[in-house]
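Handout, section 4.2: multi-component inputs.
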Amino acid sequence: MAQNTALPRNETGIETAIGILRQRFADRLQTGQSIREQHGHTTTWIENQAPDAVVFPDTTQDVSEIVSICAAHNAPIIPFGTGTSLEGHVNAPAGGVSLDLSRMNRVLAVNPDDLDCVVQPGVTREDLNTHLRDQGLFFPIDPGANASLGGMAATRASGTNAVRYGTMKDNVLSLEAVMPDGQIIRTGHRAKKSSAGYDLTRLLVGAEGTLGVITELTLRLHGIPESITSARCSFPSVDAACRAVMMTIQYGIPVARIELLDELSVRAANAYSGLSLPETPLLLLEFHGSDTGAAEQAETFGQIAEDFGGSDFAATSTMEERNKLWQARHDMYWACLQLRPGAQGISTDVCVPISRLAECVTQAQAKSAEIGLVAPIVGHVGDGNFHTLLLIDRNSPQEVARAEAFVGWLNDLAISMDGTCTGEHGIGQGKRTYLAKELGSATTYMAAIKAALDPQNIMNPGKIF
Amino acid sequence: MAQNTALPRNETGIETAIGILRQRFADRLQTGQSIREQHGHTTTWIENQAPDAVVFPDTTQDVSEIVSICAAHNAPIIPFGTGTSLEGHVNAPAGGVSLDLSRMNRVLAVNPDDLDCVVQPGVTREDLNTHLRDQGLFFPIDPGANASLGGMAATRASGTNAVRYGTMKDNVLSLEAVMPDGQIIRTGHRAKKSSAGYDLTRLLVGAEGTLGVITELTLRLHGIPESITSARCSFPSVDAACRAVMMTIQYGIPVARIELLDELSVRAANAYSGLSLPETPLLLLEFHGSDTGAAEQAETFGQIAEDFGGSDFAATSTMEERNKLWQARHDMYWACLQLRPGAQGISTDVCVPISRLAECVTQAQAKSAEIGLVAPIVGHVGDGNFHTLLLIDRNSPQEVARAEAFVGWLNDLAISMDGTCTGEHGIGQGKRTYLAKELGSATTYMAAIKAALDPQNIMNPGKIF
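Output:
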C-alpha cells in the first residue's frame, strides 16, 4: 500500500551506528528477524517495515547516548512503547534502530498532596493505576489498549474518559525528553500551570516521536471518585442517541464516559460477551462523583434519554455489573472481528463537532452498506469521536481498495464538517495525505519546526509528513 | 532598568514600511506621540518603549498585508490587544509597528450545540460574555482585566476560574493566525479533540506574538451553571488556609474559584471596599453546579475549613452578596495601592506545586518584611499561583533595586520548589532571565523554533528571549 512507501536508506550510517551500539549495549541490542518484525508493527493494518536493530535503554542517559550515536551517523531512530498504535507509527521505512523503552518502567514519584506523579515512559497505564490504587488515586486516560504512557503522550492518546478528564495533552504537566541532537531537556516542572515560554510539552505530546524521545513524564492524577455509577440505554436510531449525547453535554452533566455502539456493534457484543441487549444503537455511560452527585447525574441523564426515545435504561453502581458492561466495551475489537470470521480489522477514527455527529455516523453507515463493507461503529461520542472497524479480507485487492476508498471518503467527510481526520489515533504513515487536506499550509510550519529541531530527519522519519 | 534594553533599529526598513502602510491604510495608521506611547505600555511597570507607528487592521487580509509589508522591509511588528499585560509585552525595543487589533472585535459565530464560538482577536472577555448571556453560555477565563481574547491567548492567561475551567491553553480549540511571512494558517477546526500533527494551537497560545499574529479564535464555551454559591472563610494563618485549599483539591471538590488574600490584602480590602472582615488570611470561594451540587460542595468545604481552624465561614447564593465579594477581589489592585498612597505597584506572579504553597507564601511575606517592602499577596491558590504587589516609590533607585532583588529572589524560590517563574503573566521583557534559569537548555529549542518560523526576528522582538 502507498501509505508506507520505503524511504532511501543510509546503509553505511545505519551499519556503523549499530556496530557502535552493539559494543556499548551488548545483548541490550537485538537484531533477530522476529524481534525486528515485532517492533515494526503490531496492531496496525499497514504492512510491516522492520527496523535493522532494537535497542533497550535503561536510563535517560542511555537514550541520550543512543540518539547521539545515531545522530553522528545519520541513522534513523524509532521510539517504541508497546506497539499498540494504529497508523504505522513504529514502522521503519528508512530502516534504523527501534528504541524500545519497555525497560524504563519505573514510577519515580507519586505526590498525593499535589495530585501528580513522575514516571518513566515504559510504564503502562494499567501498571500505573495498580501502583496508585492504594493511595486512592488514578490516572484517567484509557485508550483501550494497555499502552505505555510515553507512547500515549507521543500519540496524544485519549479514549473513553476524555469527555470528562481530557486527553494526554491535558494530563501531562511536563516532560523530560532527549532531543534529536542527544541533549536532555525538561519542558517544565510540577506547577499546575505556567506561562513560561513556548509550550514544548504540548509540542512533544502528539509529535509521534518525530521531534525527540520522551524519557520521563510528570502526570496529573485524580482522586478515585467516592461513587461510580454505570448506565446503559438503548435508542431507536443513531440520530436519537447522538441528540441525547448533545443534550447531556449541553446540560453540563460531567459525564465520565459516554460511548455509542451502533446496531452492528451491539449484535457483536451480544454474541461475543453473552449479553442480550436490544440490537439498536446503545449508549454506555459512567458517572463519577459523590454518592448523591453521581446518582443525580444518572437520574438527569435518564430524563434526557426518555425525551429522545431511550428505553431499557439501567443504572448500576455495583462493581460486578459495571465491570461486565465495560469489559464488553473493551472487547469490542475482538467481538466485531467475529462478525466476519477470518476477516482482518482496519480501525479508523475521525472526530467532528458534536452537532454533526449523528449525520456523520449515519452517512458512514450508509456508505459502508452501499459499498458492501461490514463496518461496525463505536465511539467516544461525548467528544464527537468515533471509530469504524472495517472487516476485510486482506488477500482481496478489491476489498482492500474499497476499504481504502472508504477511509478516504470518511476523512474527507469529517474534514468537510469542521472536524479532524483523527481524534486520537494520530497521523503516523496512514493519515499523512489527510493531514495536508485538513490543515493545508499550516503543515508547512510543522515541517519547518521539524527541520529546525531535527535537521537530519533521524527521528521517526516518514511519519506525520 | 535592564529588562528593556533597546535593540538595534533598522531605521530605513521601518521608515519604508511605514511609508507603504500609510499609503495603504491612510488614517488607520497613526504616528502621534501620545498614541504611540499608549501602545508601548499601559499596566506594565517596565519603562515605555514606544513603537514608530500604530496600525489598525479591520480584517485578517489586512493583517496579512501589514505583516507582508513589514517582512519585506524587515520592520518589527508588535501585536496589541488592550495593553493589559504586565511584563512589557507590547514595548517596541527595536521600534517598528504596533498592530492594534481592537477594530477586529466581532463575534463571528456562536454554536450552542457544540459549546463553542468563533471570535476575532479584539473581542474582550466581557464583550463576549455579554454577547453569550442570553444563550445561557459563558467563557470562563477571567484574568481580572477586561483583556482581549487574542491577547489572552497570546499570553496564555488564566485567573480566578482556572482551578476548575483551565487556562487559555485548555479553552482555545483552534486558531487562525498570520505567520511571520504573511501567510494565513488555521491550526485546527471545531472538533473537541484531534491528534492531527503538531499542536500549533498550543504553540501559538503563550508565544506572546513572537511567532505570528492571532487573527481568529475558536473557543470552548460552558453552560452558565444552574447554581452559583460564593463563600468566604478566615484562617488563623496562611499555612492553615493553604492546607485547607490542598485538602479541598484532594477531596475532588470541583471548586470554581478559590482565592487567598493575606492579612495585608484583607486590610486593604476592608479600607477600600468598606468591608469588615477579620484581618487574618482569607479564602474567597465560588462553587458551580446544580442546586444540590453547589450546596453540597460549599458544605463539604465548610467542614474541611473547620478542621484547619477556619472561622467566620459564610456562604451565599444571592447575586448581590456574591457581586460585592468578587468586586472587592477584582478591586484588590486599587485597594492595595491605598496601603501606601502615592506608591506605584509592581505585580509579579509565581506558581508552585500546591504542597509548597504555604511555605512559598510565608517565606515571601517574611522576605518583604525583612527588606522593608509593603507587599500584599493575593493568589489563585487552587493552582498554587500567587501574586505579590510591591508598593514602591519609583523615584527612589534604592526602592526599585530592592523590588528587583525581591522579584529575583521570589522567582528563584519558586523555581527551587519545582515551580515556575510565571503562572499567568508570561515572560515578556521582564522575566527573560528567569525563563533561562527555569528551563535551561530547553530554551535553545524554543529559540530554534523562533528562528525557523521568524528568521528575520520581526515578530515582537525582544520578548521571551
